[in-house]
Amino acid sequence: MRDVSPDETGHTRLDDEELMQRLVYRDLWAFRALYDRYGNLVYSAALRVLRDPQVAEDMVQEIFLRIWRKPDSYVAQRGRFATWLSSVTRNRAVDEIRSRGRRFRHETASPEEQERELPAPETNDPALMAELADQRRLILAALAQIPAEQRQIIELAYFGGLTQQEIAERLSQPLGTVKTRIRLGMQKLRVALTPELKWENR
Amino acid sequence: MMNCDEAKELLDAYALGALDKRESEELMRHVAGCLSCWEELSKSERTAGLLALSVPIHEAPARVRDRLMAQAKREGIVTHRLPLWQRLQPGWRSTARAVGLAGVVALAFAGFLQVQMSGLRGDKNNLEQLLTATDTELEQQRQVVAVLSASDTRKVPMDEATIRSQAGSVYHWSPETDTSFIVCHNFPPVPAGSVYQVWFTADSEPAEPVATFVPQDGGCQIPMDMSRLDWRPTGIGISVEPEGGSVRPPSRWFAYASFEPEAQDGSGRGGVGFDVAVTAIGP
Predict the structure, then answer these.
(1) Confidence of residue B51 (pLDDT cuts 50, 70, 90)
(2) Where does residue B178 fall: left (phi above 0), alpha (psi -120 to 50 degrees), or beta otherwise?
(3) CATH topology assigned to domain B4-54
(4) pLDDT the model gives residue B8
(5) Within chain A, where are the H helices?
(6) What was the ipTM of the complex prediction?
(7) Which residue of A has its CA nearest to B76?
């Protein structure tokens, strides 16, 4: 493939949904434009769960090839592309650590580690990246509003791939406490994220 | 059987992936029949889904992109291994003209049967070809047969006027089912780094790219789903574009045919008149 930038072919003007439609016609440049937009996000979501750069790289390859092979797996009505893509990555990564067994599961990162801002990687779409960065800050702010013991359990479940029972064992807490903390934490999170959820639904 | 109160206790944990298999299945049995829990679940899932956007952003190594694009490219270009049309190819144009559509359908089936039978006879190559045909190819073949079987299928030849090659292509279109495919033959090989690209055109719309292909032994067969277009094309064209295809309408066509207005009434054999304005591929 000649190294022509997606900009030259006009692909950067297309939104995510339009790029996805082009994949149906095997438009390799649309695929490359999507990767340039979201490759880092997918890699980061995979890395967050898998904690192993090599395995995360393989996961990026797998997730994007899946999109290339089945572009119609994304249904626009169900939400934004970025949210769908990062959820799909997280789900697949959790399947992976489950299938590899518990030795691959790690504690979640400390809040400090999560808050640490990394320099924004170069991208062909600074406006989109700024928007995602804004949204990330809002979600982190919402997470920061809920009590640490609830947040820890939510993260162990979502990013650590642990069940309620496993979390109870890991933290030496009664199962009932874990269940309650999940419910209370998610309730608060839902309230704090209401503006984001509305946006997600538009 | 779980009731709503019990189910609602578990929805958040389910959205986070924190239920074990048995609990998940039990919950899903309830949710499947309970609209109120289903709505609650979708709220929980959307909340959980946003968490995935909270991850710290790291830069993926450049090799990931290179590897991925190389693999996508290997898988992506539409190349065809076509037992059906390859067998029909010799003399196809004149035959098609002579026998008309019904004959083409009959021939297509005859060709198909021939492949099947030679496979049964132990023609190892054909048998292997059939066995290794990918799902995509089988699906494409199914689509082609569906178009050919539709009662209203029209043919729009795109050949005749090539200046420097014997290239020809015929567009088969069933307006009723909104499906179509294009076959080509004797297409010259594209220059390195290029592909042929098929476009639908209309006076009021910019040309819409629908497929790219690299002919195999000069032939191609490309099914197209027209229902994706929200406008009715009035023409079809093929251009030569850089690998991966282009979104910019081409300045010159390799082959082009317009569907004349009177073609829409379905009268006459094949039903479609055509203009042909074909330019040969230039260096």
Answers:
(1) very high
(2) left
(3) Arc Repressor Mutant, subunit A (1.10.10)
(4) 94
(5) 6-9, 16-24, 28-50, 53-69, 81-100, 111-115, 126-145, 148-158, 164-171, 175-192, 194-201
(6) 0.87
(7) A26
Window 31-60 of A, Cβ < 8 Å to B: 31-32, 35-36, 39-45, 47-48, 53, 57, 60
Asked if the C-beta of B247 comes within 8 angstroms of chain A's C-beta atoms, the answer is: yes
Whether A200 and B64 lie within 8 Å, measured CB to CB:
no
| The domains spanning A1-106 and A120-202 adopt the same CATH topology | no
Neighbouring residues of A7: CB distance < 8 A, sequence distance ≥ 6: A124
Q: Which of residues 123-182 of A touch B (CB under 8 A)?
A: 132-133, 135-136, 139-140, 143, 154-155, 157-159, 161-165, 167, 179, 182
Nearest CA among B282, B283, B280 for reference residue B165: B280
CATH of domain A1-106: 1.10.1740.10
Interface test with B, best of A25, A122, A129 (most B CBs within 10 A): A25
Asked whether residue A158 carries a pLDDT value surpassing 90, the answer given is yes
Does A120-202 carry CATH code 3.40.50.10610?
Answer: no
What is the pLDDT at residue B133? 53
Rounded to a whole number of angstroms, the distance from the CA of B171 to the nearest CA of chain A is: 17
Which pLDDT value is given to residue A7? 60
Domain ranges for chain A, please list them: 1-106, 120-202
- The pLDDT confidence band at residue B117, using thresholds 50, 70 and 90, is very low
Q: Of A150, A166, A104, A142, which is closest to residue B51 (Cα–Cα)?
A: A142
Q: What is the pLDDT of residues B69-83, one digit of tens each?
A: 988 887 765 433 333
Please name the residues between 70 and 89 in chain B that touch chain A, using a CB distance below 8 Å: 71-73, 75-78
Question: Across the interface, do B248 and A10 touch by the CB < 8 Å criterion?
Answer: yes
Spans of all domains in chain B: 4-54, 83-276
* Chain A residues with beta carbon closer than 8 angstroms to that of B56: 44, 48, 109, 113-114, 116, 118
Q: How confident is the model at residue B262 (pLDDT cuts 50, 70, 90)?
A: very low
State the pTM of this model: 0.58
How big is the CA angle at A109 (ends A103 and A113), to the nearest 5 degrees?
Answer: 150
User: pLDDT digits over A29-81, tens only?
Assistant: 889 999 999 999 999 999 999 999 999 999 999 999 999 888 877 877 667 89
